[in-house]
Design brief:
Blueprint: H1 5-13, H2 16-23, E1 30-37, E2 43-50, E3 55-60, H3 76-87, E4 91-95, H4 104-121, E5 127-133, H5 135-146, E6 153-157, H6 164-181, H7 203-214, H8 222-230, H9 237-251, H10 254-260, H11 280-286, H12 294-302, E7 314-321, H13 328-339, E8 346-354, H14 361-377, E9 384-385
Parallel strand pairs: 3-4, 3-5, 5-6, 6-7, 7-8, 8-9
Antiparallel strand pairs: 1-2, 2-4
Helix pairs in contact: 4-5, 6-8, 6-9, 7-9, 8-9
Length: about 400
């Protein structure tokens, strides 16, 4: 059902406009912006509208390339979301984190500090919500599961909600499968690759893009085999090629992860049986295999593997054809939450669209409104398709 038509009809019959007005207090005419730096070097910013409705949204952003400067989140979707929330009276707190890359540990620490900093510099909020995108979605899960008494609800957008191990397994599989179907296109292998420039137009990016494009039409169609085995999303040739480039590019981040694990491998496909190619026997005989170390697996599991132990409402929103964070992350988290006996506190919504975090501002705000109604009035929102045409 597209955005729970029946649910909206019921709300309209119980004076939904009054309810929403009580939550989304008037349009803020002005706002105060407060910035600072934490002891570990993370930048932070508070946006406090006037009038302020007393509620705070703590935002956690996605991963940033390691070579980029430390900076506060500022992509177009985030800026639109911040402006929309502030215009409705919500204060916003955000952190740059003190490091880039797979900064789950530091991101969780610095994001969790924001509530205390906001309270000391502004005032204690009446309610505090978490909102995270991509890696920030996993950070939101981490904080909700470990500190449920300090937050009232959470919204994870296109999040790595199934955990780091699942994400890196998918990325590692992508690289070893790419090397099998397109040998020699990229130097080295999954765990032994020089630090490559993989930005659009770079030699490595161009080589991968050409290989995937040509592979759509050459005998055996290796690109389609690769897409089928790796589970690449996409309904057009361009989307399939882009998904392949994205997966291969993401696997190049293993160099940074290996630094975090002090060289201990965290990827293991020794027991993986691949299927979906023209010759699965040859594929499984020929694909390169890697064995993980306990130390490597431990690091990835710690930062972070969800427990599913929810005590406050958690709402997730994800595009169904996400080339960066697979939609299967949502199924994995639902299973973990069910095993923990907390399914009543998880609602998962999706948008039928291609792209990572390719969400319309109104889809995000609709889901955030659903979360508000759930927290304040115990009205559980509908799960499922909430695509805005």
């Amino acid at each position: 059902m597209a955005r729970g038509v029946a649910f909206r009809w019921v709300l309209s019959r119980i004076s939904a406009l009054f309810i929403v007005a009580s939550l989304l207090v008037g349009v803020a005419a002005a706002q105060q912006t407060i910035t600072g730096v934490t002891a570990n070097g993370a930048l932070y910013r508070f946006i406090v509208p006037s009038p302020w409705n007393g509620q705070l949204v703590v935002c956690a952003h996605g991963a940033v390339p390691t070579g980029a400067p430390i900076a506060l989140p500022n992509n177009s979707l985030e800026v639109q979301m911040f402006a929309a929330l502030a215009s409705q009276g919500f204060a916003i707190a955000m952190s740059s984190y003190a490091e880039n890359g797979w900064a789950e540990k530091n991101g969780a620490q610095t994001t969790h500090q924001l509530l205390g900093l906001f309270t000391s510099r502004i005032s204690a909020p009446t309610r505090t919500y978490l909102a995270g995108t991509s890696l920030g979605g996993l950070i939101a899960v981490d904080l909700v599961e470990r500190f449920p008494d300090q937050y009232d609800g959470a919204l994870a957008l296109c999040g790595v909600v199934g955990g780091a191990t699942l994400q890196f397994q998918h990325e590692g599989d992508g690289r070893v499968l790419f090397d099998y179907f397109f040998p020699g296109v990229l130097p080295g292998d999954l765990l032994h690759t020089p630090n490559l420039d993989f930005s659009p137009g770079s030699p490595s990016f161009t080589a991968a893009a050409i290989a995937l494009s040509i592979g759509l039409g050459t005998p055996g169609q290796p690109t389609l085999q690769f897409a089928n085995v790796a589970g690449l999303p996409g309904s057009t040739p361009d989307e399939i090629v882009f998904s392949g480039i994205t997966l291969v590019g993401d696997s190049l981040g293993f160099n940074e992860l290996l630094q975090r694990t002090h060289g201990h491998n965290f990827y293991d496909n020794t027991g993986t049986v691949y299927s979906g190619s023209a010759d699965d026997i040859a594929l499984n005989d020929g694909v390169q295999r890697f064995s993980a170390t306990p130390a490597g697996l431990s690091y990835v599991a710690k930062y972070y593997t969800p427990t599913g132990h929810l005590r406050i409402p958690m709402l997730t929103l994800h595009t169904t054809q996400d080339p960066t964070v697979s939609f299967s992350q949502e199924h994995a988290y639902a299973d973990v939450v069910a095993a923990a006996g907390a399914s009543q506190l998880l609602v998962q919504q999706f948008v039928t669209r291609y792209g990572h975090c390719n969400l319309k501002p109104e889809e995000i705000l609709d889901s955030f409104q659903d979360l508000l109604l759930w927290v304040k009035f115990d009205i559980t929102p509908p799960g499922g398709d909430v695509t805005v045409p």
